[in-house]
Amino acid sequence: MSAHDELVLCLSFLWQVLFHLLFVCLLLLAVLVLLMLAVRLWLKGKRSARRARTGRPAVAFFHPYCNAGGGGERVLWCAIRALQRSYPDIDVVVYTGDLDVSANEIVDRARRRFNIVLPRPVHFVFLRLRLLVEPSLFPHFTLLGQSMGSIFLGWEALTEFVPDLYIDSMGYAFTLPLFRYLGGCSVCAYVHYPTISTDMLSVVRERNPRFNNPDYISDSMFLSMFKVLYYCLFAVLYGMAGSCGDLVMVNSSWTLEHILSLWHASNRTSVVYPPCDVSAFLDVPLEEDEEKKCHSIVSIGQFRPEKDHRLQIKAFKKVLDRRREAGEGRETLKLILIGGCRNQEDEDRVLMLRGLCQELDVADRVEFKLNIPFGELKQELGSATIGLHTMWNEHFGIGVVECMAAGKVILAHKSGGPKLDIVVPFEGGQTGFLADDEDSYAKAMEEILNMAPANRLQIRRNARQSVARFSDQEFEVSLLGVLEPLMGTLER
Predict the structure, then answer these.
(1) Global confidence as pTM
(2) Residue 235: CA atoms inside 13 Å, Cβ hemisphere, count?
């Protein structure tokens, strides 16, 4: 056999192999499409049966940690209250993974923590697979692991209850295509914080150590390049998932910028500032504090790593040291850390922070107040001088607004929502202070404490007047305005 004949035979064999592979792929694709159609019909049948039974459309919120007690949860309960007030003919459902509490306990905690009373009962769908979105389950490739886990958790939610309108209120964008294409639902997202952002990419490219970029990666050129590639690929997948939303709401100008660059949905995206309980703090008296013998610095925020409580403690240590050098006693100042613990990981983090206080010899001047009720939170804010916030690129900062509404001098991180939306001049007057590292925070604290009480009072007044745009009422108007097109499509 000649070389030409052998080549022809070889090419013929390869073509037959490729043809059969192509046939198998097309067959598998057809089976997959038929399977998806069958699943969609099955889920549509479940929704139709539910509608025939209740006669009412249902709006479902995907919020696996609805009992956590943070700012995201306040958005959830205010959104539910707004929908129940405006649409008495709908049912509201919450998908949650809080299996250790009852429905009544969840609603009662929302009332105590956020001062929110719902007009009607809410139906809860309890999910057993929340473990799949726990970051501790994915020590490496955490973003991808949690996102894939959210798909399985979303599938559990969808098969348990098929809504007419699905709202992801906790940032699990990969559930959007699931509910839209398999569930046949209208889908919407309220984005508190983009799962991936250009800032995260820049941190890795520049090899800067952060809570999500440990030293062993930032110190390695190869690992940093690999992580940049991983982030870029994940950003593409994240953008594809997010683009499935019929409507998108973001909580700040900073979040808007990143979501527009990733999801490419400018005609469907709106800024809806989160609801801050401004009115609840307006009765905190505004008066000069020159008679105070001890000034307290209050921090409000869940005990998550990105909140950077370590920075607060270290900056506070510097202030104490400098005041001691100036001949002032330690008893004139204290730091109060107020926040919620979602799980054992958060509780372990609090233990480490307590250890840091012992190590820095400031434990006698630092208090931890965990999962406290709204009344106690308000009391602590009422007696504080400074409201402290240290999260880098905080998406918004409800705690920052609450401090300003209570008439405290706010000291926040010079980035994200606080910089762009909140701690900005009001009618030409200063509303607070911004800092970005231990030294600048310590310097700002000293400047605030050393100010004349009358000057502090003017900043506090400006701050309180400026935050009316973040009230519950403004949130409800904005939310209902954005959702009105989708709500109008629900069959009644």
Answers:
(1) 0.79
(2) 18
